[in-house]
Write a structure and sequence with these properties.
Shape: elongated
Largest sheet: 12 strands, antiparallel
Number of helices: 4
Amino acid sequence: MRLKTFILSVSTATIIGGCGSGQTSQETVTYPVIKVEKSDAVIAERYSSTIEGRQSVEIYPQVSGTISRLCVKEGQNVRKGQTMFVIDQVPYQAALRTAVANVQAAKAQVETARLENESKQALFEENVISEYDLSQSRNALAIAEAGLEQAKAQEINARNDLSYTELKSPVDGVVGTLPYRAGALVGPSIPQPLTTVADIGQMYVYFSMTENQIRGLIRQYGSPDEVIERMPEIELTLNDGSVYEEKGRIETISGIINPQTGTASVRCVFPNPKRILFSGGVGNVVLNRQEKEVIVIPQSVTYEIQDKIFVYKVVDGVVVASEIKVENLNDGKEYIVRDGLSVGETLISEGVALLKDGTPVKVEYSNKQ
């Protein structure tokens, strides 16, 4: 606030004396006043927001079986690749051994077919057998080789199925609820995931802005990319009213306006080293917008009647009630005046509740600033 404060003497008429006496006296009451000036102001704009983990992954099994080991606890921090669940491996180990044996048998069949084909080739060159016999041996070798490839594919599937019995965390994060315990029968079609791993080292905070609000930012900074690059850090007020200690920044501004709401989505990123923010939480994002050369007055110089804001101006020796249009600075202390005041006007700054419209005043400015 850059308003100059002065002292104003207000003269009011008081009736004195007994019955029939018409004598009056002037009582001088001193009120402070301010001169209206322009200054720069910072407007704190608040937007309802939702909080989500940077990445949240639901864990489902890819094979069926009973859970033989539960390796994590709810709320535990896990690293990418850390084993979380182990499904009974016995049937899958047996299936892998069978698949490996089938590969070995298929390799033997290929070798036998190759020897047979080489023998038939030599006999054909000596005109001992016909070309038909030679073609049969070649086909038998091709069938054996195909069988080997099929056995190898089955071995790969068996190894994959065995590896799927160990469910590992796909990301660094925090383990969610664990609805299934050791001994539970699970499979790919279970109704809810084994758990959820949420990466909450950094949190996404989403809020919406109107097209006009976004255009205001673009006018101030130059372009959407410059808004993201140059805009000051952002505050976050949590659901309990406390201010989050870490600052965030805008990461993306959606280029699509929702035709139903007339708003676009904005995503911020906030660090969460102490895990104070929770995925699924809510809060209020606070954006500070600077206004240059505007009239700012204390809320204490105003009074309200039927949702309208008034001030007392000193005009030609009397107090005049004047309606003004204001914008709240969200600090509970000041207003930006959009209409109703001009630079240089004098306002009563204290005791407005004791004054009435039309009260005569005598201005006596002191040297107090």
